[in-house]
Amino acid sequence: xxxxxxxxxxxxxxxxxxxxxxxxxxxxxxxxxxxxxxxxxxxxxxxxxxxxxxxxxxxxxxxxxxxxxxxxxxxxxxxxxxxxxxxxxxxxxxxxxxxxxxxxxxxxxxxxxxxxxxxxxxxxxxxxxxxxxxxxxxxxxxxxxxxxxxxxxxxxxxxxxxxxxxxxxxxxxxxxxxxxxxxxxxxxxxxxxxxxxxxxxxxxxxxxxxxxxxxxxxxxxxxxxxxxxxxxxxxxxxxxxxxxxxxxxxxxxxxxxxxxxxxxxxxxxxxxxxxxxxxxxxxxxxxxxxxxxxxxxxxxxxxxxxxxxxxxxxxxxxxxxxxxxxxxxxxxxxxxxxxxxxxxxxxxxxxxxxxxxxxxxxxxxxxxxxxxxxxxxxxxxxxxxxxxxxxxxxxxxxxxxxxxxxxxxxxxxxxxxxxxxxxxxxxxxxxxxxxxxxxxxxxxxxxxxxxxxxxxxxxxxxxxxxxxxxxxxxxxxxxxxxxxxxxxxxxxxxxxxxxxxxxxxxxxxxxxxxxxxxxxxxxxxxxxxxxxxxxxxxxxxxxxxxxxxxxxxxxxx
Length: 557
What we know:
Elements (H helix, E strand, L loop, with lengths): L1 H21 L9 H4 L2 H8 L20 H19 L9 H29 L4 H10 L1 H5 L6 H16 L14 H14 L3 H18 L4 H31 L3 H4 L7 H11 L3 H9 L2 H6 L7 H11 L1 H27 L14 H14 L14 H8 L9 H18 L4 H12 L2 H5 L3 E6 L19 E5 L5 H13 L6 E8 L3 H5 L5 E7 L11 H5 L3 H4 L2 E6 L2
Parallel strand pairs: 1-2, 1-3
Antiparallel strand pairs: 3-5, 4-5
Helix pairs in contact: 1-5, 1-6, 3-4, 4-5, 5-6, 5-8, 6-19, 8-9, 8-10, 9-10, 9-11, 10-18, 16-17, 17-19, 18-19
């Protein structure tokens, strides 16, 4: 009966995940969900006006283009093809530009569910309990349906876990046979985000341990590691070739254009132009000055704040269990390879696997070495955490707290956080492409202040169109903001010019001091800006709606 309830609950939560993606979710978690894939691909494939982040400029290539092409690139190519084939006349709009890449990521997110279902018996966890914990987590509902490189990192980590956890039909641990796939996934993960090595370290050590423990011949051991290395090198060469071609526009025809060029010259030229994005990423991020530009945090932020913010009581219970197990097993863990022969039963102990805790805390410790610590960096850790938490007699008495925590997280990050910006861009896209605008050319200036970076692609403006200008003021001070607003107002020469200022309700008063008047104002609700939070006394007054809203103010001539 309990299993049937759990299955029904998982099915309901899986439907919610897909349905909420299509609604769509209005919360805006971080600019990287747009600017590390969809925005770039919208410019490259759909020829839309976009903002290219510095990581994708040929002068500083720090992100591989392979995964953006395989995800957002494929979805945008599909909607472009549908429109060209006249299957739908208006396939490319702000809704499809937002939802199509997200929908692909949502489909991919079920790799997590598959992995949990496959892994639970191996690690001594209840499969359906683990699946409900996974599907009910707001991390899965919100973060795993967004176009983050961290999301892909989590999915690759899940696949790696499945590959290293194999069993014979007799129930004993089997020697893994998928060395080639392990090599491919490890390298692909490294090119997606070099931090993947922190997540892959423990699974790879566990895999190497199983191979050594299998008591096979030296020839077999060498064969396993050789397959791993060869497939890793082949995968790396594919990524390097794709990135080199994308970032340098290198063509063999260009390189070998003159008869005088020898093959050696071509190889030298290719070597000089070679782009290895993970090394550029590491050289940038290992410089403390560069990390400081993105914000520095105490080294314990992941342990004390981000882990709790993402996983709530499950993170706290894991820390508690970790200390208890460390105390109990430190001697056995140090001597397990020397003293314990046969299948590693201790590693899947009925009280909860210390190995799973290592899979959780070792990446956490490595990521804590960097001073820039954001919650989304930890989302791959949901897999070992739900497997650990779903072992018998764990987290049962905390059911209500887990439900309330995830409801609050889903509401805060899925709806409220910067929640007015996406609907605002939808509204402006409809306005810009309205029949009135199409029949009579109008010029639009859109000035964003105190919001996250607006993804220009959602405005659906072709690169050839020059009648829309986007100005991102970020968190500009009152003087700078007023100066820009007054400057735009002085350029207001024609009735065909429309200037819109997009600003949160909490700082709307700043614009009213600029000495300009507005003829239209639209309030988009809800919108919570953590950088300009609403004041509690104002929230308790009748003015709470404007404090939790985003204003679109049209400047009067």
